[in-house]
Amino acid sequence: SSGINAEYGQEQEYRDSLQRDRERDELKKREEKEQQLRSQTEEAKLSSFADLVPDEPATGADITFKLPSGERINRKFPPSTQLKILSYFIGSKGFPPSGHKLVQNFPKRQFEEDELELTLEDLGLTRREILYVEEKD
Question: What's the pTM value of the predicted model, to 2 decimals?
Answer without folding.
Answer: 0.68
